Amino acid sequence: MAGERFRDLTGAAVPIVQAPMAGSSGVALAVAALQGGAVGSLPCALITPEQLRVQVAEVRGAVSGPLNINFFCHEIGPAPDETAWHQALARFYAEEGVGPPDNPPPLRAPFDAAMCAVIEEVRPEIVSFHFGLPARALLERVRAAGALLFGNATTVAEARWLAGQGMDAIIAQGSEAGGHAGYFLSGHHPVGTMALVPQIADAVDVPVIAAGGICDARGIAAALILGASAVQLGTAYLPTPESLISATHRARLAGPEAEETIFTNLFTGRLARGMHNRLMNELGSVNPAAPPFPYASGALTELRRVAEADYASFWAGQGAPLGRAEPARALTERLWREASNLLGDRITA
């Protein structure tokens, strides 16, 4: 039966992972996905260890099933000189009557010892990593806590490296994916999901989870036929009532803006896929003045506050027009039912 290998590994009823999307997903979405039989996920780049502890307890109090806790693994360098970035934003500051914030919000945080201690306490079924892996000592502590380890690869070389580090499954993130591209070995070399998945499936012996541009049953079926054991869906869950996105973001997902997404470094300093807005149109989607990840976001704080539509990031993948606004549990169940009908008994990935 399709997806059997992934279900045997994780205990999920269906071979779907609800993608962890920092700022866009949380407890309600994870619970609904789990209720639908998928792997539910909590993103941790924008929360504290104590918040993670509380969120896991809330999920566990509502539903059982395989829970994935996701972390970024970037390195935060010294604070850069942001003079050029502030100059690039100066005309927007003047027009909106704001400036750089006196107290920027906390930066997106990488996995560290404090978060590792929470993982050892709450013992989730799965821990996944974006932008590579943490230090070996931390990784081994997570493994010793009993969690399955998932790594994110954007190239075959990254997948081989992750397999060599003992990952239990590898997320094959194609360039169609919304949000941050998870490249970490040698820069951004975009490969489409349907080209990447079979290459990674041929290159590694662990289950492959296809991610990027998959928003309907046809995409799920295609990914499994190409060798994936499961799919990870992010953009498909954004229109659900359980997601945390703003009304403006929802409106754009339902409008013509969803038909064109593009990589940009303006909002965080690292390439991420989202829908166009004024900032991207006027500064260019990629601008060298933007400080390195994760520093670029701070200077936009006040601009986002006064004019979200013009200055906020609206992450979305290239499959966004295929999405439907329905409850996440119903979405999960429907997508797998429809994909199963398309697949029949043809594969047992």
Please provide a brief summary of the model.
The protein has 349 residues and is of the alpha/beta class. It has 14 helices and eleven strands.
Mass-distribution shape: globular
The CATH class of the domain at 4-82 and 107-244 and 322-343 is: Alpha Beta
Low-confidence stretches: none
Mean pLDDT: 96
CATH topological fold name of the domain at 4-82 and 107-244 and 322-343: TIM Barrel
As a percent range, the share of helical residues equals 25-40%
- Given helix and strand content, the structural type is alpha/beta
Note the total helix count.
14
Order of helices and strands: HEHEHEHHEHEHEEHEHEHEEHHHH
Strand % is: 5-15%
Description:
With 349 residues, the protein is of the alpha/beta class. It has a domain of 239 residues: Aldolase class I (TIM Barrel), CATH 3.20.20. Helices cover 38% and strands 13% of the residues. It is built from 14 helices and eleven strands. Strands 1-9-8-6-5-4-3-2 form an eight-stranded parallel beta sheet. β4, α6 and β5 form a beta-alpha-beta unit. The model has no long low-confidence stretch (mean pLDDT 96).
List the helices and strands and how they pair.
Layout: H1 4-10, E1 16-18, H2 27-35, E2 40-43, H3 49-62, E3 67-72, H4 83-96, H5 113-122, E4 126-130, H6 136-144, E5 148-153, H7 156-164, E6 169-173, E7 179-180, H8 193-203, E8 208-211, H9 217-225, E9 230-233, H10 247-253, E10 261-264, E11 272-275, H11 278-283, H12 301-306, H13 308-311, H14 328-343
Parallel strand pairs: 1-9, 2-3, 3-4, 4-5, 5-6, 6-8, 8-9
Antiparallel strand pairs: 7-11, 10-11
Helix pairs in contact: 2-3, 3-5, 5-6, 9-14
